Structures are given as structure tokens and as C-alpha cells.
Amino acid sequence: MGADPRFFPSAGPRRLAEIAAAAEARFAGEAERIFTDVAPLALAGPEDVAFYEGRRHIAALKATRAGAVLLPAGTEGDLPAGTIALICAAPQLAYARVAALFHPRPRPVPGIHPTAVVGEGATIEEGCEIGPFAVIGARAEIGPGCIIGPHAVVGDGCVLGAGCILRSHASLLHCLAGVAVVLNEGARVGGEGYGFVTTPMGEHVTVPQIGRVILGDAVEIGVNACVDRGAGGDTVLGPGTRLDNLVQIGHNVKTGRGCVIVAQVGIAGSAELGDFVVVAAQAGVVGHITVGSKARVGAQAGVMNDVPPGTDVVGSPAWPARETMRAFARLRQLAAAPKKDGTSGGSP
Amino acid sequence: MGADPRFFPSAGPRRLAEIAAAAEARFAGEAERIFTDVAPLALAGPEDVAFYEGRRHIAALKATRAGAVLLPAGTEGDLPAGTIALICAAPQLAYARVAALFHPRPRPVPGIHPTAVVGEGATIEEGCEIGPFAVIGARAEIGPGCIIGPHAVVGDGCVLGAGCILRSHASLLHCLAGVAVVLNEGARVGGEGYGFVTTPMGEHVTVPQIGRVILGDAVEIGVNACVDRGAGGDTVLGPGTRLDNLVQIGHNVKTGRGCVIVAQVGIAGSAELGDFVVVAAQAGVVGHITVGSKARVGAQAGVMNDVPPGTDVVGSPAWPARETMRAFARLRQLAAAPKKDGTSGGSP
Amino acid sequence: MGADPRFFPSAGPRRLAEIAAAAEARFAGEAERIFTDVAPLALAGPEDVAFYEGRRHIAALKATRAGAVLLPAGTEGDLPAGTIALICAAPQLAYARVAALFHPRPRPVPGIHPTAVVGEGATIEEGCEIGPFAVIGARAEIGPGCIIGPHAVVGDGCVLGAGCILRSHASLLHCLAGVAVVLNEGARVGGEGYGFVTTPMGEHVTVPQIGRVILGDAVEIGVNACVDRGAGGDTVLGPGTRLDNLVQIGHNVKTGRGCVIVAQVGIAGSAELGDFVVVAAQAGVVGHITVGSKARVGAQAGVMNDVPPGTDVVGSPAWPARETMRAFARLRQLAAAPKKDGTSGGSP
Fold first, then answer.
1. φ, ψ dihedrals at A79, nearest 5°
2. Domain over A111-322 is classified CATH 2.160.10.10
3. Which of A262, B14, B70, C330 has its CA at a distance of 20 to 30 angstroms from the CA of residue B303?
4. A114-159 pLDDT, tens per residue?
5. Quick check: C8 and A210 CB within 8 A?
6. C57: annotated active-site residue
7. Where is the active site (chains A, B, C) (predicted)?
8. Interface B-C: count of C-beta contacts within 8 A
9. Which residue is closest to B300 within chain C, CA to CA?
């Protein structure tokens, strides 16, 4: 069974040869066989293409009713008879390409909904879809082929490149965005950062937040995630960076290319991340530090100091992963060890 | 003093006999006495019903001006003279029932606001209230007696059972919902999960997310909380499951009946929770693991491995609660102990 | 280079004498010199005023092209020749004042957008700006000079003092707000708290949440942050309290004056914070405890017990900061120490 056609009508059918080409997979015979959709191994039927994610799913592989399965060389022996092997180097990537054959990213249905409000001097290029109750600010520039969803708000003067998508209830303010940028539902870009100075009497005086947000090409922002604008100077997310849901990005944060910021992470003001940094769920990075390229921060970690490139850190406060694992093992031992007296721990 | 009538007008007045019946409470005399509202012990007056939450509130009980108090047998001796004892097994539950007499869940005021946008082929059954600027997608099916609040969005093809409530700014996409489902303000159901594959060159390729969200009867989703749809196959929240505010549920998560997921918790993709699991605030559960029925996860815990049914875990990474408490006690001792040399810890 | 005029047109130009007066700074000569904007040290040009944040930025100070710099006495020797020293006691506070000269908080553009929906009996005082698709509930009272942004919702009966701002997509329900209250984008005030009682059969029975939210003067609520209304009695945020983005405040929480609640913090139901409490990012405070005035809670801390006034706590569970630092140092030592046998830790 493929996707529910009420929500995800298939763009198919597709011939096996087309599928294999998209997947960069090799296969034997039946090039003209027709497939109608993709589906998980356990749910796929004879007209569906599935993929094999690895040994955790070996039972599902052996029992699948899929017509064809994307899998790595050497595992095709575990396929049921009659299921076609699509042998490829990276089955999950191949699946992404094949699934996109059947379910390409929705194209805009060009037009401006009669309820949308478009500000003075705004320019909306060809092929855009502007949804019900969308608000486009004065002098905003919307590139060709953008989708502005229901209730989405684009602030005065903002610039969107070609093919951007703002899903329902998203807002984008004080922002220059590249091409193919995606804001998911309720994502908030360009809010006022948490910037104030407290007087000796305890009054919090707001520091005007007069920087922008610069979003590189193909940046994606998760549902209800927040990216504050710069206090002075800009908040910058490098090309290809993806934020998951409920992430918080403080003012003047800068990331390089392709960073992966998982759900509920917080990156405090003026922190800088290199390229391809991964920050796992619920972790935090304090302000004004640097996390080097390809560093990885563990889930729930609390990063309080610079992290060198390529380093893995975990824990709160975060230490290099190896040392931390050793410390935890030791602590667990201590807790398990018999205790000889009441005043000190751990000694035999 | 009962609730502020500007916000919570009482549906009352009610006779004591009615109140006691709703509470399954016993009392002596005055069955016809009239009460107008419920109120906290400390604020209640002679026409209000209050309840006694336990010994933490004994001073408030002794000083209350409430006309009647819901309390367990054996505590009525602490009531001031003239306050009626409503003796019941579970005072808090009894209070919930009595408060609902005075403040029933708001009924829909049937009608479609003239500003609402209803898509082609959508069906809206009898008795629904559709608020200003609501957007109902094409072919959506809204069961009888639903309330779709201001600015709420129901996506194309979605199905809502009877008596569902979408509060203001909520969105529900790619979803089949049972009866009496509630989405609080800004709740986001059916967003695109965080699904992509990274090429060797560092490009993140989106995996089309073509699953749905299935919400069981009486599921409730907190304010600004997020539930991603399945990548392939469905994300499922079992009947009676309640999510608090700002919770994140990843793609293909499955929960059983009656789970309690407290504020700011994150459950990563494909994790499975049994029935009546409790996950306390700010905890995280990694993907692809199982948390057994009636397990309880402590606040801020980080669950990285399967949790057996009925087990309590705490800490990050999470351990069984007993072992963790012992380890922390030991660590605290170590910190307090005199240190004999600078190169190793803990030994006398 | 000052702020991008597409987003932040300068209200300037200003004479140096005016700037120095706002900053309470002293300077030598050139009182009539004209400045057009503020800018960071590294980006400022000869017509901009910058400020010096401290020794971390000494290189930027020495290299700045700014026309004038706000800095503390004794550091003016590091300025390049030709840059004017504006010597003041608190340069960051002075900067806030000067930046506000060029970028005052936007004034309302009075008027009610034709698409806005205003409920029966609502009163909107002079000078308010009501944006597109705003919804003002029945009997709501909006004080003079308020800005209600696009898609913002004010619930039935709510009261806003003078000069409040609800940014786009914010909602405010069951709430009495003082003057100059700010809700940032998507902020949600007055949602139903997580209040239910579970029957022995596992059914969750909602406790009607019939309290309000009381927001003191100058309270600010961050982007997508949530403040639940009281269950019975009120949730109260004291004057000047500021919540950062994605913060969660449970029902019946009470804070004093000027509290600082940083991003992604959660404060559980009925917790009470004194005046000027600081809770750093991602920390949690359990319900029904008290955090004394001027206490400070570290990032990611988990506060499970009362915190005395003026105390710093860190860690999860939270301990006083000093003890915790000692314990972590000890743990790190243990992890680093040579281990003599496999069954117990830490002893030489």
C-alpha cells in the first residue's frame, strides 16, 4: 500500500527503468514493469517500491510483498522470490530520489487568493501562489515560483529568492532569503532578539534590534522554530542549513553551510557554527562561542566553550564524548560498589 | 470569589444535592442550598464550592470561607464551623466534575463566519462553529459539533470526528482525527518531518514525507506543540493521549492509550510508547526505541535505550531511578569529602 | 554602515550634543557634528556611533572607522585618531539610549484595517493600529496607542493597557494586561493549562481552567512562548518581567518584578518566583516551589526544591553552583585517574 491518495496522490505510474535511473541502481530484466508508488517494506505491495534500511529491518525484508526493493549489493539474497532487487550504493538516498518521482515537492498553483493583502510597492514575480489571508508587506520582493501559504506573513521590505515556500502561519520579517528557502508551519524568522540592558534600579531597557536575518539558499526552518534578527549586524544561516521544529536561534548567530540543528535545540546570541555542524535534539550552545566545522553536539548537551572542528561533545556541561563516556561508566561503578564508610565514596 | 465572569460566566446556580451527585460525595443536610461557582480554598466565599488538595493546604482549609469543601473522609474535622463537608474518595476528581457543572466545555455556536474560506468538496456537518479567517481545505470532512477557531487551518482531505476543537491559529494537515480531539492555540499537526539524506558532497536531499497523522479519540495537543506526519506509514497518538505545550513528536512515533507527555518534551522519530506512559517536562526520547506501558520518564531525562514496562527512569542518559539517586548521592559525598591528594578522587 | 534602511530607516540625523545627552556621556569638542545612525564597531563608518563592549572587542576598537564610540573612562586611548570618545559609565546602556534616538520603537499608525474583525461591545481607544485579519473579541478593551498586528487575536473580555503591542499571529486570551505589554510573534497567552485528573480506569478528566493571566506593566513575551491561564486563581507575571522565545509558563505560576526567563525555559504550575530572578536558557523549575528574589538558575538546570533568595543554582537536579562545580571537577578527575582494578572506581 502506497501513500494515502487523499493527501499524497501519486504523480506516477513509472517504469522500472525510470526508477532505476533515478536511484542509480542496477537490476535484472523487466525494465518496462510499471510501479505506482513507494511504500515502507512492511506495507508495500507488488506495485510499490520499498527500500531496505539495514539489518534492524531484516525480518521485514524477508517478508516484504514489495514489487521491488532498493538495497545494497550482497543483501539481495534475503529478498522473497519475485521481488526485484534494485542494487544501489546508498539505498536511503536512492529512496529519496525515487519517492520524489512519485511525490515531487508540490508546485505552486499560480495566483493570488482574493483575501490576500499585498502591500504598496510589493513585487510578486511570475508563477507564485499566494494563499488565503496571506499578508505581503510593503516593498517586499517575492521571487518567481514561490508559495506563500494561508495566513503567512512576509514583512515590509523582505526579499525572497525563487522557489521559496512559506507554509501556513509562518512569518518572515527583516529578512533576505535565497532561493528554495522553506519555512514550515508557524516558523518565525526575524523576531526581536532578547536584547536589553538592566539599569541599577532593575529596569530592563530594550536595545533596538536593528539587524537582519540572512537565509542562504535551500535553508529550511522547522515548525514553530524561531530565528531572531541581528541586534546590529545580521543573523546568518548558511546555505543548506536545516532547522528542525521548535529550535531557537538567537540574535547574530552565524552558521556555515549545511548545518543540522535538531528539534528543540537552542543556540544563544552571537554563537558561530562552521560548516556541516550537527547539533542533536534539545542541546544548547551558549552565546559568543565557536563550534568548528563538522563538530557534532550530542542530544541535551550544554556547550559552554569553543568546540574544535571535527570534535564530538556530549553532556551538560559538554565534554568531548570519549571522556564523558568514561566518567559516566566510572560514576555507575561507584554507585554499584560496596561502600565501606559513610564519609567518602568509591574506595575498596 | 468564583471565576471572573468576564471570561468564565457560571452556568450555575446549582443545588447542593446536584453538586454532591456530580462529585459522588456524601454530606449532611441542606440539600437545597444554592451554590453559584467553584473557587480555590483561599478565595472561595459562602456561595462557592472548594476542594482540599492535601496536607500542604491544611492552613487554607482551616481558614476557608467556602460554603462547602470537597475532601476525604477523616479531614472534615479541620473545616471551619458552618462550612459543609462534601466527603468523597478523590476530591480532585470530584472537583473536576463539579467545576464542569458550573463551567462546561464551551459548546459550538453553530455557523460559518463570513470570512472563513471553505475549500471545494469539503463537508461540514451539523452544529459546527467555524471562526473568522478559518481555512478548511478541499475535501476535508468536519464531523458534527466541531469548533474551528479563528485563523485555524484544516488541510485538504483531513477528517475530524464529532466534537473536535481547533483553537485559534492551530493547524491540522494530512490527518485523520477521532472524536473530541483538541488542538490548542498554535498547535501544529501534520508538518513535514525532519527527513533527509545527506550526500557525500554534503547536500541534504529531502525524503518525501508521505505518511499521515492518526489521532485517537480525545487526544489533546498543547499550545504551539508539533506533531510531524509519518515519513511513510503513520504517526499515531493513541486515544486519550495528552500533549502539553511546546512538545515535539517526530515522524512515525506511536503512542498507546492515555499517554501523558508534559511540556517541552521531545520524542524522536519512530519511537514507540505503550499505554499510559508518562514523560515529564523537558525530557527527550531518542528515535527507534520502545518505552513500555506505564513506564515513567523523569523531567529532563534523556532516554537512549528501551525502557521496560512499569519502569521509572531519570537522568541524561536515563537510568532506572533508584540507581541514579544512589549515584547522585555518592557524587555529592565525593564532592564534600576531604581530598588527600590532587591526582585522584574520593579515597580516604 | 548603519542599519539596512529597508527595514530600519533612521529617525536621525542627530547632533553629537544630543547623542551625548541621551548617553549621559562626556566628550571633547564638535558638539554640532552630525551622525546618522548607530552601528557595530566593525561595521561603523564616520557618520555612525558605535559602542565598546569590553576587552573581547579590543581589536575591533583599535580598528574601528566609527565617527564616535561610547566607552568607559580609561579606554579612550585605544581609539583610532579622529574617532570621538563618548565616555560614559555604562556603555551598553548608553548605546541602548542612543540607538533608540535613531530607531525609536515604532509608533502605531492609527486605524483599523478593513479586514479586521471587531467583536460586539469591544472598545478601542484612540491612536490604535489594528492590522489585517486581527480579531478583537467581544467586550475587549484596548487601551490608547496599542498595535495589534496582522492575524493577532485578542479574546473576549480581555483588557490591554496603553501602548501594548501584539505582534503578528500572537494571541491573548482570558487576560488583563498592564501598559506597554509586548507579545512577540506567535506568543500565546491564556491557553488552557495542562490540568486533568486521571481516573482509576486511566481516563483523563479535564479540570476546567477558570483562572486568568495577569500581565504587569512592560511585561514582554517571546516569540512562540506560552503562558497558561490559572486553573483557579491567576497566573501572574510581575511588572517588567521578560520571557524569551519558546518559554513555557504553567498555570498559576507567579513571578515578581523584572524576572528574566531565557529561551526554552519551562516553569511548572504554581511555582513562585520572587523579584529579579534570572532563569537561564532551557532550565526547568518544577511546580509548587519558590525561587527567591535575585536567585539565578543556570542554563539547563532542573530546579526541584525551593531556592533561597540571592542563590545561584546549576545542574539537573539543581544544586548550589559552588558545590556542583566542585563535584564536576571531582568527577572529571576520577575519569582521568588511572584505575587499579575493574570493580571500583577512583581509589589509587
1. -75, 145
2. yes
3. C330
4. 999 999 999 999 999 999 999 999 999 999 999 999 999 999 999 9
5. yes
6. no
7. 251
8. 207
9. C302
